[in-house]
Amino acid sequence: MEEFVGMINDIIWSNGLIILCLGTGLYFSIRTRFLQLRHIKEMCRLLFDGKSTDSGVSSFQALAMSLAGRVGTGNIAGVATAIAFGGPGAMFWMWMVAFLGASTAYVEATLAQIYKEKHLGEFRGGPAFYIERGLGMKWFGILFAVVSVVSAGAFLPGVQANSVAEGIKNAFNVETWITGLGMVILFGTIVFGGVKRIAKFTEYVVPFMAIGYILLALIIIAVNFDQLAGVISLVFKSAFDMEAGFGAVFGLAIQWGVKRGIYSNEAGQGTAPHIAAAANVSHPVKQGLVQSFSVYIDTLFVCSATGFMILITGMYNVYNPSSAAGGASEFLYHGLNNIAVGPAYTQNAMDTVFPGFGSYFVAIALFFFAFTTVIAYYYIAETNVSYLTRKIESPVFYYVLKVIMMLVIMYGAVNQATLAWAMGDIGVGLMAWFNIVAILLLQKPALKALLDYEKQKKQGKDPVFVPEEIGVTNAHIWNTLNKEREK
Prior knowledge:
By secondary structure, the chain is an all-alpha fold. It is about 70% helix and about 5% strand. The protein is built from 21 helices and four strands. α2 crosses α13 (about 250-265), α5 packs across α11 (about 195-225) and α9 (about 140-170) packs antiparallel against α17. The longest helix has about 35 residues, at about 140-170. It starts with a helix and ends with a helix. This is Alanine/glycine:cation symporter family protein. It is a multi-pass membrane protein. Belongs to the alanine or glycine:cation symporter (AGCS) (TC 2.A.25) family. It is found in: Cell membrane.
């Protein structure tokens, strides 16, 4: 079974998906005239624009919720893996993916805002909604929603719970079932409070964990500041095959950098739009730009913090792909002995400046990173349950989802979840294929909305979205929202 699932996984997460993600990012960058550069100042201003209401959350809360999904174990273990198998140059390609992916994140988030709906008093939206309303393909929307519920609600939470439980056990020798039970209680306390409580939790926890992690990274970099220029040079030289020592992994640097970049920032995967739709804003582009900036936060800040910590302390290995054929050394660079690829790279990097502290801090960071990701998974699954049941005015389906996810978290904490991880990867990969195809077909409303936003800004207005004025149909909720704002 695992071999079959692995084979399917390899097909879905093939170079085809990598090329599609990169190509789509480049295409949207050109079509939006590189908004990720032109509107950086506006992105920062909009982070604190808009207030939460009974129906929706503020822009900052939506940003925190989306970062809860983007910033996960991949920001620690994923970066270490990219360096181990792709060399230091993989870091550059992760940055490139973030730069191009920011435009894709804008398009999918703006579409989620344009075609959002209100169900049981709360804003709901995402790929399933804009596939049905924008493309008129209800069957496609249902297919996306079902895949999302199964992968985000049944498979992936258990894997994250397992990472947390194992990390806590290794650092503090706490039994996995105790950690699992604690996670279940904390999870239930948050999600039974609805989207408002989820937003409040992530609003405080996500900035705390990200800023704390980056500050520690800066301290480690400062201690080794004399090596910083050399590390930056190494990254760029390795990325373009100008560093002889890592020539054997030049192609792998691109492959691993792109793969881990896409997996980390999730631009185009169709996960963040669910959260973007919940924001209470006067114009869809406002949340589109905020979500574009969240890609930068995830990869340029958090992933870079991990990468620089590892590289500047020399606490990493780079595997030699030729060693399997025999006659070659196992490593192109050997900085650690008997250490598995993953969080241990970061732990050892921290221990060089804070002896004995690395394993504890990384375990705590993994807890926050992984647990907030589980919360984001819940919201994604819940939104797709809302889509599938939106003609039924009953919250019973949400309660069923909550109970299922609590059981999955407990099971994942005490059992190895390798098959669940592979199945979850298949689900997320399918979401990415479906979503990218959808936004390529449905790009015009997002591009028109950007022009409309820029036009209103030039006129000195606080932009307000009126769908009919730019030829967008099936976005009925905006007429109601505009009437409410006029009152």
